[in-house]
Amino acid sequence: MLSSLHDFIERLEHLRDLQQVSVPVATRLEIAAITRRISSYPKGGPALLFQQPDESPFPVATNLFGSQRRMRLALGLDSLEDLTVSFDAILQTLPVQGLSGLGGLLAGHPDLACCKPVTVAHGPCQEELVPGADLLQFPFLHNWPDDGTAAGTGRYLTLGQVVTTAPDGSDPNCGIYRCQIHDAHTLAIRWRRGSGAVQHHQQFIQQGMRMPVAIVLGGPPSLTLTAAWPLPVGLDEVSCAGWLRGASIPMVACPHGPLQVPAEAELVIEGFAEPDRPLVEGPFGNHTGQYDPAGPAARVTVTRITRRRDPIVPATVVGPPPQEDCWMMLGWERLLAALLSRLVPGVRDIRMPLPWVFRSSAVISLENPSPHMVRKTVQALWQLPWFRKAHLLIVVDAEIAARDLQQVAWRTVNETDWLDDLIRDEAGGRLAVDATRRSIEALLPDAATDRLLIQRWKEYGLP
């Protein structure tokens, strides 16, 4: 069970899956460029720990989740497929009638309810109070040349878990949003449309109140992941992370509002999202390979920063895949596989190729599909929040494993009738391909020859 970023890094070091960079490196562009090059290695390359970022006393860790192996380690799994099996076992016990209310049902299930966060009086995240609450003393990264050129600085917190609640302290939310540093005491945070944080901020704005915010760096690796995943509404990220790691997460209270943060975090930035005076955030180099344009963002005034005595600053570098953020979504893909099998009849599996992840595009396998069933399934998927903006869905027969992308590509190109098998949503700009069509006379090997090869293979002297 991993309780902190320190635990995770020690584990990676022990397994020789962490490369330390001991020479001084710049937080402006250099660390990001190194990380992007490492991330492009086969299987994602190692995690990186920069000991002297801008000669700061605080090391920077990148590419922490950037491989399937490290994703398994972060979640304590032998295989990510185990996540689908475990989540499906929970779903099988629930009266699932659809997406509405599903998050609440999951939150109340004994396996998750027993992993709700527990409050403790003190934690390592509050060992040191940072004098002056100065953001600029920390080695936050500037990743792409034109990041933040519209206003503020080009430095961002890219792996910050932003904690908010409703005005009455209910409905806690923990999500990862990009946080641009404008000056030593001000952040611009661009909420995701429809997210829990943007709903909370709107509620505070309607009451003319400042919204307490806490930005957490580090803590249990499972929480960093659930904060990045679009969980069903009603299932809170901290309880889900506790279930993933097999134990409740200890939390400490923040003094400026009804917020709690992981006791084992590296760094906690506290402040208030103002009800007015929005800032400009961006542009920001993103996974599309382009800059997200500058736009309005919440103004967050920083009032307090606490940290461990020896904090490590985690960061992620985004850009054209493969990058770490693509690997992080593999865990969500396996949870989604279990969800879809209950929400959409006939769905066997889902796979999101790394380059497709952030366009909500996927390969979907169906049991015994017919053309009518495929179209009905695609329409049902497009109604779900996770596929409302899906650029492309490819539907295959369950006999073709969705994870076998070479077979999927072969089937799509060779078996698809481009006049009849394309399902278009002109209004939504979405496309689905029915690649379930099967040849009348498929090529089949001779069974007797197959048996002969099995018997004589060693004789051939072939590997």
Please outline the major beta sheet: 10 strands, antiparallel
Q: Which CATH architecture of the domain at 85-314?
A: Roll
Spatial extent as radius of gyration: 24 Å
Structural class: alpha+beta
User: What is the CA–CA distance across the termini?
Assistant: 40 Å
How confident is the prediction overall: mean pLDDT? 94
For CATH, the homologous superfamily of the domain at 85-314 is named as: Electron Transport, Fmn-binding Protein, Chain A
GO molecular function: 4-hydroxy-3-polyprenylbenzoate decarboxylase activity
Pfam families: UbiD (PF01977), UbiD_C (PF20696), UbiD_N (PF20695)
Organism: Trichlorobacter lovleyi (strain ATCC BAA-1151 / DSM 17278 / SZ) (Geobacter lovleyi)
InterPro entries: UbiD, UbiD-like_C, UbiD-like_N, UbiD_Rift_dom
Explain the overall architecture:
With 463 residues, the chain is α+β, with helices and mostly antiparallel strands. Among the domains are: 85-314, Electron Transport, Fmn-binding Protein, Chain A (Pnp Oxidase, Chain A), CATH 2.30.110.10; 344-434, UbiD C-terminal domain-like (3-Layer(aba) Sandwich). It contains 13 helices and 24 strands. Strands 5, 6, 7, 8, 9, 10, 11, 14, 15 and 18 form a ten-stranded antiparallel β-sheet that branches. α4 (81-91) runs parallel beside α10 (324-343). It is globular, with a radius of gyration of 24 Å. The mean pLDDT is 94.
SSE order and pairing:
Layout: H1 5-14, E1 18-25, H2 30-39, E2 47-53, E3 60-62, H3 68-75, H4 81-91, H5 102-108, H6 110-113, E4 118-119, E5 128-129, E6 156-157, E7 161-164, E8 173-176, E9 179-183, E10 186-189, H7 196-206, E11 211-218, H8 221-228, H9 237-245, E12 250-253, E13 260-262, E14 265-273, E15 279-281, E16 284-285, E17 291-292, E18 295-307, E19 313-314, H10 324-343, E20 347-351, E21 362-366, H11 371-383, E22 392-397, H12 405-415, E23 422-425, E24 430-434, H13 447-460
Helix pairs in contact: 4-10, 8-9
